[in-house]
Amino acid sequence: MLPIAPSYLLYYLPLIIAIALVFGGTRHENTKLILQYAWQTGRWITGFMAIIFIVICILDWLL
Amino acid sequence: MTSDSKNTILVDGERIDLRNRPLAALLAWLIPGAGHFYQGRHTKGVLFMVCILSAWVLGFALGGGHVVYASWAPGDKRWHYFLQAGVGGAALPALLQANLIKKATDPETGVTSGDYQPYWGGFMAPPLRPVRESQADEVSAWYARHGAGYEMGTWYTVIAGLLNILVIYDAYGGPLSIPISGRKKESEDDEPASKETEKSAT
C-alpha cells in the first residue's frame, strides 16, 4: 500500500525528461545520438528507481 | 572575437568552435543555454534552456515562489541555495533579498524589524526571522500552505542548478567523451556516428 497518493508520482515525469535530455546533450552533439542517449538514461534511471520502489514495497509488506 | 585551433573540437563527426571558453562558461552559468548560443550550437542551446528553465520555473511554482532564497541564519541554513545558484541569473535576486533582510535584522536578538519591506513583493526573499525549529514561523507556514509542493519545488530547483553545472562544462570543454555509466554496448545504427565520437583537438 502506497503511503502517498499515486498522483504524487507524476512529479517524477518532468524531472526525468529534463535530466535525461540534459545528460544526452552533455555527451553528444548529434541530435539523434542525444535523443538515443536520453532514452537510455531515462530507461536506466526509471528501472533503477522501480527496483528500489519494489524493494521498499516488499519490505513494507513483510515488516 | 577570434578563435584559435585549440578551441576547435570534433564530436559526433561535427566540428565545433568553442570560441572563448571561459566566456561561454560564464554565459552558460548566467542563462542556461546562452553559452551554446554564443558558440553557434543552437539546437543544444534551446534544449538546455528549455529543460533547465522549465524544471526551475516548475519547481518555483510548485513551492509557491518561496523555495529559492539565500539564508545562513541560525535555524535556517539554506544550503540548497548553493546548488540552486547553478542556474546563475535566475537565482541572483535571492542575494539582494538576503542582504536586505540581514540589514533589517537585529544581530543580537535575531529578530527582523517591523518596518522591513522586501523588494519585489517578497520575490525570493528569506523568511522573517527568527526561524526556530518546531515553532510556528514563516517557513512552517510555507510548508503548511504548499505541502509536498514545497518539498518537490525545492528539489526541482536544486536539480535544475546541478544540471546546469553539466551544461557549463559542456560549453567550456565540449561533450563528455566517455559516458558516466561506462556503457559500451551500441546498437548497429549508431555505430557509424559513434566511431566519429572521438573528441580530438585539431
Question: What does this protein look like?
Answer:
The complex is a heterodimer of chains A (63) and B (202). By secondary structure, chain A is an all-alpha fold. Helix content of chain A is 73%, strand content 0%. In chain A, helix 1 packs across helix 2. The longest helix of chain A is centred in the last third of the chain and has 32 residues. Chain A starts with 11 loop residues before the first helix and ends with a helix. Chain B is mainly alpha-helical. Chain B has one domain. Chain B contains 8 helices and 5 strands. In chain B, the strands form 2 sheets. In chain B, strands 2-1-5 form a 3-stranded antiparallel β-sheet, with no helix packed on it. In chain B, strands 3-4 form a two-stranded antiparallel ribbon. In chain B, helix 1 packs antiparallel against helix 7, helix 3 packs antiparallel against helix 7 and helix 6 crosses helix 7. The C terminus of chain B is likely disordered. At the A-B interface, helix 1 and helix 2 of A face helix 3 and helix 7 of B.
Written as H for each helix and E for each strand, in order along the chain, the element string of chain B is EEHHHEEHHHHHE
The gross shape of chain A turns out to be elongated
The SSE order of chain A reads HH
Mean pLDDT value of chain B: 86
Across the major sheet of chain B, the strand order is 2-1-5
**Strand fraction band of chain B?**
5-15%
Domain tally of chain B: 1
Number of strands of chain A: 0
Quickly describe the structure.
The complex is a heterodimer of chains A (63) and B (202). Helices cover 73% and strands 0% of the residues of chain A.
Protein traits:
heterodimer; A: 63 residues; mainly alpha; 2 helices; B: 202 residues; three-stranded antiparallel beta sheet; two-stranded antiparallel sheet; 8 helices; elongated; disordered C terminus
